[in-house]
Each structure stands twice: as structure tokens, then as C-alpha cells.
Amino acid sequence: MATPPVQHSRVGSTASIASVATQTAEQPDSVPRGSLLKFQAVETVTAADVPAEKSSPTSEVTSPVAWGGSNKNGGGGDGTAGRVSQMTSRTTGSLFSSTSSWTFEIASMVTAAAAVAAIIAVLAYYDNKPLPAWPTGITLNALIAVLTTIATASMSVPLSSGLSQLKWIRFKTGRAPLADMEYFDDASRGALGALSLLFRARGGVAGSFGAFAMIVALLLSPFSQQIATYPMRTTEVEGGAATNLRALGYELRLPGFDELAAFVPILPIKSAVYYGLFAENNKPWLNLPLTCPTGNCTFGEIETFAICQSCVDMTEYMTRSCVGGTPADGNMTGCGWKLPSGAALNTSAEVFSMTSLFPGSISGASYSTIMKLIFMGTEAFEGPKDVLKPWAKQCTLNACVQRLNSVITHGELNETIVAEYTNTTVPNTRDAIDHLEPIYITSPVTGTQYNMSRSTVLAWQSWFAHLFQNGTASRNAEYINRTLETAPGSPNVLVNLTVGISEGNTFFDHDVVQAFYWNYYEYPTGIEMLVSDLAVSTTVSVRAVNNHNERVNGTTLVYETYVHVRWGFVAVPAVAVLLAVLFLALAANRSARAGAELWKSSALAMLFHGLDDSVRARFGDLDGLEAKKKEAKEVKVKLEGEEGGGVLRTDRVY
């Protein structure tokens, strides 16, 4: 087919160049292996752009086929071969010029580093601050996710380009299995290919380093989400009206009905005592009237007048005692036990007893003592029935001053005793009663003097003497027939109450004995627990219903979510960026030292610099991709330059 001559034309004053290529009329089947496909070009230029002496009537452009190498077979006899070589060389230089650079990769790396730096800066700003509520509705986690995505995407550019460039360096600087081309390509596409390159150990030092950096970059996203956590904490509320109560003393009582009970407690005190004995919730302080708008308040340490309790073990002071004296035969099996204070278990059938003592009947009682309760028993806690193991405890109620750490959490008051102060002076009790001398207690911390009027003490003691009168719990069958009618003068038989405890019928003199008996067998420290509830419940009433109390202002707290940064997790994004920077520098340095063109991941580079004919011939007879992949492991090639571009030439390993 004749090639039309170049036409020169001018359209206005604008110069234009247009090329139209048409494939030659020969059919593809007639093109020999390795020959060049011919393209026809029509070039239109202005007369001013092309000097007359350099104008050519015909311009013919040639290109190798997809696997193309050098044209060994073709070549026109009309002198077009030189023009083909010039055009091919000119085309290759424009596509893969040595003037190419790493600018885009460096810009991407800077973007990734800036995104990670932004994550660190944002978290450093909000660390230990309340969780931000931005008007757009975007959360802090969402912002971190966006910045992480930007960093991950930006880091993939230098990592992918660097790994892709390493394959060209590998084949330019020496012969390598053709399969390495695919290994490097797979590694440049993601972490799975990078992991494969590491396991195959085909990347060399630089390739393995790049593959490792690619894998670490995959961890950037999950670890970035682990940097910030959002725990809860309490913070003060300005203007919160949190109030508690404390007592400076106690004087409330009512006149009695006779000289034996000249004063009696007010009803709130009686109610508090019954609540402490029978409520069984172990939280009598919850009845204290407080103010806490949010349900979470703190009052620091509060000093208040209170009722304290203490219990001591008296078992070592017990001695065997027989009513009516020691039996003539010396057999003391049916006898009981007693204490120096006079408290006693009359017989071994009395498994539990309670004895109340008051300062008038106690020698050596302290100035602040209100009442002592002595408990005795014949069975151990959780011990077998009818196995004798006598024990005794003495518990004391006395006026005192307490320092309490008071906190309200989720609407529930919790007060811890920090210290207790009492007056341990042993007075002349008779004189104190005759002159109605108050109980004075001075705080060693604040110097404040607290007092409880003597008439109030007498009111409590007269009522306690009736409520806590001596009583027993017995398993003797003769108690079944004892009633108020048959023993009207006995102070020990007030109620016949039968319950099945310790696998037998137990009979109680009154309800208070039953309460302490039940607690003893129910809890390891049941008696101490019940006496403590009694003291705390009474203290609550003293603080709440009193003409000598005052309010204590506290701090109102509210729960808030705040940002807590776990800086250790920042190491992963920082290391990922550092590895990417180092790998980019390494790849650029290797490329410069090898004198390799910056083809990176360009598909055109593969088209322009394919295999030579002999290599393609070896793969032509193989069926299936897997067979060709297997053969590629055995074929070593090297990128060799030649006129018109480089070609991958083989060196087979046998």
C-alpha cells in the first residue's frame, strides 16, 4: 500500500499537529513471529513549524508487539529502519524519561506523616478532657478514622511504587527468576503479597524491608482506634446543693410517769433502736435525711456527736457455776457458767443468754458508758448441736465523737469511721446522777466540746433496762409449760417462741434475745453486726432529729465521659510512617545507584520491554497459567538495553 505524502496546511494562525494511524492491509496471520506492526501516520503541521529542508514526504512509526523485543526480521529496503529506530527511541524516552522523579511519592509520604501527626495533636489536645460534642455530630472516633484512612492510603503510594521499582532494579542489576517479577508485583498490591514475598525470601534486603513496611502499614488503622479510650469519671457541679447533717450534742427526752422512769426517750430514738435491732438490712445509715441532686456527692470528713459500740471476747473469764452449789457427787454436767460481772448461764440447757448492765451496777464504767450487754453461749458458731464449747462476749454502747468520711454514690450513702473519741474518765456515778452532770467529750482535732445531757442518758438507760432485760434461749423441755400465768414474777419468761434452729426446738424469753441468737448462728460476727446496727441507727436519729445539729455542705458530683489517651499505642502509627519514609529513601537510593529508569508500577514499561523471542518460544508450548508460572521459576532473565529499548533476555538454570 502506498503511503500518502505529508501535507502542509495552515488554519488561521494556529499551529496544530494531528496523527492518524491505520494498521497495514496485511492480515495478522501474515505477520511473522517477532516482526513489527506498521502504523501509517498522517502529520499535519504549519509551514512555519517545519523547515523545508527537514520536511519528509513520509513518516513511518513502528512498535513492537505486546511481548515485543527487537526487530530481527523486519526492516524496509526503502531506508525506513533508521527512522523506525529514531521514532522508537524518541517514544521510549518521553514515556520513561530519566527526568522522572519521586515527587508524587514524597508528597504522599508527607500527607501520611501529616495525618498521623494530626491524630497525635488532636488526642494530645483532648487528653483528660471531656469527650467533645461537636455541632456537626462528628465524633472524635470518626475524625481519627478519617485521618487514619488518609494516612493509610497515602502510605500505600510510596510503598507500592518502591516495591514496584525494586523489581526493575533487580532485573537490571543481575539475572533473576522470571517469577520474581510477579512476586514483587503482588507485594506492591497489598499486605498479602508482601507476606508472600517475605516467606519466599525473594525480595532481598530492600524488598523484605519494603514488604515488612507494607505489613506494618496494615496495622495502622486498628491500632489508631486503640489509642483513645473513653472512661467515666466524676466532676464537680458548680452551685450544687449537697448537704449532710452532724450533731453537736443531744438533749432531747420526755418526762416519765414515775420516779423509776423520770425521763423517757423521744419516739424517734425508740424507732431507731427497733430499726437497728430488727431491720436486718445492715445499712441503717440510709435513713439519714440528706440532699444530693445528682445522687453522687462527697462531704469529706464530718465530725459529729454519735453513739459508738465495741465488743470484746470474755471467754477466758468464764468459770463453771452450779445453782445451789457443787453437786455432792462432783458431777457438774448439768451446771452452767458465769462471769465476774454476774452474767451467767444457769444450766447447760441454756444455750444462749443476754445480760444487760448499766453504769450504776458496773464498777469502773467510763464516763461515757450508756449500757453494756453480755452474751454467753454453749455452742460454737457452725458447731454441732449439743457439743459444749462455751463462749462469752461483752459489747458496750457509749457516747462519743466520730470523724466520718461521708460519700454518696449512685444515691446511696456510705460513711466510713475514720476516728472515734470518747471520755474514758471514771466518775463518781452517784454524784453524776444526783447533779445531772452532762457527758462532755472534747475533740482532740478541732477542740469542739460535745455533750449529752444526763437526763437524756437516764431516759435511755431506763428504757433500755426494760427492752434489753436479761433473757435466755433454752432447749429444755420444761420451758414448754412455762407461761406468763404460771410464772408471773419471773423476769426471764416474757414470750414462749418456738423455732427450729440447730435441729431442735429453742425457746426464747423475748424478741431481743431471739434477734441476737439468730444473728449469732446466721453470721460469723453476727452479734457484733447487730450491736453495730443498733449504734449506727441511733446515731442517725441523733443527727437527724436534734435541736443541736447543723448542716454540712458538700460537693455535688456528676459522671462525665472523658478522653484518655493510651500513648503506647501511638508507637504503631509512628513506626509505620517511619518505616515507609526509610523504605522510600532506600528505594530511591537503590534506583539512583543502579541507574534504573523510574518505571515503578507502569504497565507500559512491561509492554515496551518484554521478553525476547527465545523466552516466549519456551512458554508457547505450555498449556495453562500454572504451568507457565512453574516454568517462570526456572527461567532467569536480565533487563538488557538495546537500540529501541531494553529486552528481558534469558539464562535458563538446568
Structural notes for this entry:
The chain crosses the membrane at residues 106-126, 138-160, 205-223, 567-588. Pfam families: DUF3176 (PF11374). The structure is a single chain. The protein is an alpha+beta fold and 654 residues long. The chain has 3 domains: 21-95, no CATH class; 103-230 and 564-601, no CATH class; 242-308 and 400-561, no CATH class. It has 16 helices and 27 strands. The strands form 7 sheets. Strands 6, 7, 11, 15, 16, 17, 18, 21, 22, 23 and 24 form an 11-stranded antiparallel sheet that branches. Strands 1-2-3 form a 3-stranded antiparallel sheet. α3 (140-173) packs antiparallel against α6. The protein is elongated. The two termini are 48 Å apart. The model is unreliable at 1-99 and 483-503 (pLDDT under 50).
